[in-house]
Amino acid sequence: MAKNGRKTKPETRKARAAIPKHMLLPLTTEHVKGLSLSAHLTLAACRSGEGSRQLLCELVRVTYMSYFLWETGCGSAGYRLYRDAEEILDGLSMESESNGRWTLDEQAMRALERIMQVYDEQIGSVSRRKFVNCKMRLDRLLRVKIPHRVAEIDASESV
Length: 159
What we know:
Blueprint: H1 21-24, H2 29-47, H3 53-71, H4 79-99, H5 106-125, H6 128-158
């Protein structure tokens, strides 16, 4: 109470939006199985020599999604795994653009198989909220980075 006998308003805190209960739950088993199957089939296709630019982009998406989940504390990987995988995928992209072969060598397979193991662990335990936030972050990154990369490639080809 104030000195004059009136009640004072409690200090206003910044109101936090309530998180819906379903966003605190893990992903559904069906969703996890679908994500995992898609990632593993992509890796298998690239391993067998049936890779493509689109499949390589999917491997990049899985790698970055796993990295973003790892940054939130989900998964047992380390920074070096993601750094090495990014370098491998970048090198593969450059090489494949020039020679037209979208295949993975043994070093790339080992790194990406480990990424897949971590990714499976992550999506099997992450809350929907964390997953959605990481996916939104990935989508923002791809909207910004990919168009610039395509413009660089187009500029170098027109010279």
